[in-house]
Amino acid sequence: MKIILSGASGAMGQTVAQVSDDILFGIDKIPSESNFPIYTDVETIPKEETDKADVIVDFSNVGFLPDILDFAVKNKKPIVIATTGLGEEENKKIEEAAQVIPVLVSSNMSLGINTLLKFLKPISNALGDGYDIEIIEKHHNRKKDAPSGTALSLAESLLEGNRYIEIGRNPSSGVRKKEEIGIQSLRGGTIPGEHSVIFAGDDEIVEIKHTALSRKIFANGAIEAAKFLSHQEPGLYEYAEVLEDE
Ligand SMILES: NC(=O)c1ccc[n+]([C@@H]2O[C@H](COP(=O)([O-])OP(=O)(O)OC[C@H]3O[C@@H](n4cnc5c(N)ncnc54)[C@H](O)[C@@H]3O)[C@@H](O)[C@H]2O)c1
User: Fold this and answer.
1) Closest by alpha carbon to 2, among 16, 23, 21?
2) Best mutation site among 9, 19, 28, 59 for ligand 1, i.e. most ligand atoms within 8 A of its Cβ?
3) Which of 139, 144, 179, 199 has the highest Cβ tally under 10 A?
4) Cβ–Cβ < 8 Å for 241, 228
5) Does the CB atom of residue 150 touch ligand 1 within 6 A?
6) Does residue 139 carry a catalytic annotation?
7) Is the four-CA dihedral 53, 58, 59, 62 of positive or negative sign?
8) Nearest to residue 137, comparing CAs of 183, 201, 71?
């Protein structure tokens, strides 16, 4: 499998390069030292080089997403999108691209979080509605988006009935509503990523916590997703399908 690595000079791009020998070339607006070429402009990439690739893995920035999606569609390459902070516009563009090429989007590529995403709803159903749900996420001080895409995915997996997501709490928030799924964000130091889902009931708290101890879990997960996606038909895929395939 030959990979095009988008965001190759970033913290995640460099970690993917550490865990994989399959990088054909990288794309990043900032050049960095690596044992594969890094192109700073998609327009300058020779077509014959792109033709050799099987899949694109993107750990860049939401601002670059339209360009890398256009590049993927133009060259008919499957793309794993790990970049977070996607809005309505980006999601629409992703859906359009998925008509033409295989696209997998996951705000968290780790096995732990994806397993949690699978089992959170059954746990919530078993506990019933007597519990308030709060999610706390902690990340390094360079993280641009908040709340984390993972916290949003965890909260979305618990949405049903009148439940809604409430981001942050401030002096005007008042007393929490029963239907709220609260998300609180903390930023500092070099924390690679922590997510706690808290079910707080009367005299009882159930807390499920995932801690990323290094970025390697995301890099390895993205490589697994790339292997899966490189032999799929055009369409929009979820990480759960990678786990099922394994
Ligand atoms: N899905 C996951 O499992 C997961 C895990 C960790 C991080 N992330 C996400 O991946 C993304 C990258 O994270 P990071 O910590 O490596 O960030 P980073 O800032 O260290 O790296 C991002 C890289 O993208 C490059 N880039 C940004 N805009 C660009 C543009 N217009 N053209 C070309 N290159 C551009 C930057 O130069 C930088 O090298 C973030 O959105 C982050 O939230 C996802």
Assistant:
1) 23
2) 59
3) 139
4) yes
5) no
6) yes
7) positive
8) 183
Fold of 111-211: Dihydrodipicolinate Reductase; domain 2 (3.30.360)
In CATH, the number for domain 3-109+216-245 is 3.40.50.720
The tens digit of pLDDT for each residue in 33-75 reads: 999 999 999 999 999 999 999 999 999 999 999 999 999 999 9
The structure tokens 């709220």 sit at 180
CA of 57 to the centre of ligand 1 (A): 11
Burial class (CB in 10 A: 0-12, 13-18, 19+), 78: buried
Token couple for 95: 């859906």
How many CB atoms are closer than 10 A to CB 51? 10
Residue spans of the domains in the chain: they are 3-109+216-245, 111-211
The pLDDT tens digits of the residues spanning 92-112 come to 999 999 999 999 999 999 999
Alpha carbon 10 to its chain centroid, in Å, reads: 15
> Does the C-beta of 80 come closer than 6 Å to ligand 1?
no
**What is the rounded CA–CA span in Å between residue 1 and residue 168?**
42
CB 163 within 8 A of CB 181: yes
What kind and span of H or E run contains 182?
Answer: strand 180-187
User: What's the pTM value of the predicted model, to 2 decimals?
Assistant: 0.91
